[in-house]
User: What shape does this take?
Amino acid sequence: MPNYVSSITVDAVIDALKAFLLPFIPDGANKIVRGQGNRVPLPADPCVVLTELLQVDLSVPRMDYQPPTDPIPAIGTATIHGPARIDVQVDFYGESAGDYCKAVKNTFKSMWGAAQFPKNIQPLYTSDGVQSPLITGEEQWASRWTLTVSMQYNPVVTVPQDFASELAVHETIAADINYEV
Assistant: This one.
């Protein structure tokens, strides 16, 4: 059975967001992690945790067809385009979490922010920052600011498509159409 995969994975979208966030967080390369990892401790403050929340189709899929170059076998391809929105929760931890959150929010929504992302992954909008402190395992308050960012990405899947190289009618079926008024 063939393996049909999307041209852009969720991992690639998260990596693009991480690359955007790196300059905002001191020692960002080791301080920006993906959420919901088992037995992975939170990095030392300041740090950022990225958690995917939702994926939404932005339209019905559009299909493009590429006929075969060789008529036998008559198998070409169909390319399926399915633009999508992904929402990611961005949690900022540390004493300056609110400042990092505000800086990211303002730049994410700007033209400068859009220029920092690959052409096929673009920022759409972001929520306002929300202070959401929590109690750590050591029963200490931790400063956390949360932002939800929305991005559009345009994955493409290519699958085989049968084409007819020749059409012929071998039998005629009579149809009796009786119009009564």
Observations:
- The first helix runs from residue 10 to 21.
- The chain has a mean pLDDT of 89.
- The radius of gyration is 25 Å.
